[in-house]
Amino acid sequence: xxxxxxxxxRDQIIELLAKTNSELTTTLKHDSPFQLLxxxxxxxxxxxxxxxxxxxxxxxxxPTVEALDQLSLEKLEAYIKSAGLWRIKARNIxxxxxxxxxxxxxxxxxxxxxxxRLPGVGRKTANVVLANAFYIPAFPVDTHVHRVANRLGxxxxxxxxxxxxxxxxxxPYNHWNDAHHxxxxxxxxxxxxxxxxxxxxxxTDHCQYNNQH
Length: 213
Known about the structure:
By secondary structure, the chain is mostly helical. It has 12 helices and no strands. It folds into 2 domains: 4-24 and 139-212, Helix-hairpin-Helix base-excision DNA repair enzymes (C-terminal) (Endonuclease Iii, domain 2); 33-133, Hypothetical protein, domain 2 (Endonuclease III, domain 1, Orthogonal Bundle). It has helices at 4-20, 33-42, 48-61, 65-70, 73-80, 86-103, 112-115, 123-133, 143-152, 160-170, 176-189, 208-212.
């Protein structure tokens, strides 16, 4: 259990993040849970901006699981070649489409365990789909969430799964989906990996990292 002072700091951090990052959602462009799933698979070691430039053309021509399933591996590779690890991602996407059709009637499943059965879908990707496609409370942890949460002192963790578990324990359930967007945006805009903009940060008074440097 957090002590009273730690609870107060946590609540102040959440309140400030909520005020400055309201109504955020994923920056991956999509029109369906299937498109978000594919975009998230592509986003590993790739910026959302690059993914959006890829999927704009890919989804315009092949918007559904059935259409993408019909696309040859070679043609899919040509679409996604500007993404990192594109050969692996192309194979995973092809196998995922086939599994969705064969095992899930062409629909994206709505449970983490089922999502993680799909090739190329790890825990973070599954959580992104749950939170952003189905609005099921989940806490996706990417490098931004992990970094910011540790710097602020919200968690003390070495792995993403530890970060996820600790954040879910201290942040109210009904804030999970929003809070992961708040932390991502704060990491992108202010609390950057190499040069955090502490002089522009609204959380400096509550930040463990700032107080130690």
